[in-house]
Amino acid sequence: MTAQSKAFGKRAILSTSQGVLTAVYYSTPDFIPSKLARGVVKTAITLGVTGLAVLEYRDEKQAAVQRGDLLAQPAAQAPGELIGGPSDRNDEPHPAEGRRDGGGTGSQEGFSDFWLSLTPARRAGLSGLGIAGAIATAAGIAAAERGIYRFSERRAERGVVAAHTKTGLVISGLTTLLALIPPPKDK
User: Fold this and answer.
1) Each residue of 34-50: pLDDT tens digit?
2) Could you give the CA distance from residue 148 to residue 169 in angstroms, rounded to a whole number?
């Protein structure tokens, strides 16, 4: 069995688990009449899905370290300190020292330098933009959840048996397929 097939097998198990938890999450109104109990169960399911995502991240990080990906290794060395084994690149500084290419110009500028170069008004504006983006994301997720619930409720009112479960199975299938896509590799 190759390393790629092992990775795909692990990814398939994780994505199937996420799909099953998603189906259970969306089908709870069909099986749990109490809103409080549904909230508790959905919170537990959300924690389970988050745990699976953390496991996947940890496994990817360990695999990157085993492959020798220097950017994935912990940055225990100081910037400029030599890392790795014998190589013709041993005189180069640590690759994860927090520097970035300034828009392809070849200049190296740290994020802290960039942030400190901004006026307080621009810093406040960028911070506000980030906060507004987070609030908009949370509001969008809440609106989508409410819309999915109402859609299933309308179907149940029309007499569809297990309306929430059927909707949950469709969303679960999409979740499983999307979770099978591997994350992009760092360059």
Assistant:
1) 999 999 999 999 998 89
2) 13
Return the structure tokens found at 109: 């500028």
Residue with tokens 């507004």: 132
- Token pair, residue 3, equals 């390393």
Contact of 42 with 50, CB cutoff 8 Å: no
How many H-runs (helices) and E-runs (strands) does the chain carry? 5, 2
- 50 phi and psi angles, rounded to 5 deg: -65, -40
pLDDT digits (tens, 9 = 90+) for 106-142: 455 677 788 888 899 999 999 999 999 999 999 999 9
Following DSSP, what letter does each residue of 16-70 receive, concatenated? HHHHHHHHHHHHHHHH---HHHHHHHHHHHHHHHHHHHHHHHHHHHHHHHHHT-G
- Percent share of the chain, pLDDT over 90: 46
Q: Where does residue 103 fall: left (phi above 0), alpha (psi -120 to 50 degrees), or beta otherwise?
A: left
The residue written with tokens 């297990």 in the block is: 162
Give CA–CA dist 40/159, Å, rounded.
Answer: 27
Spatial neighbors of 120 by CB under 8 A, at least 6 apart, are none
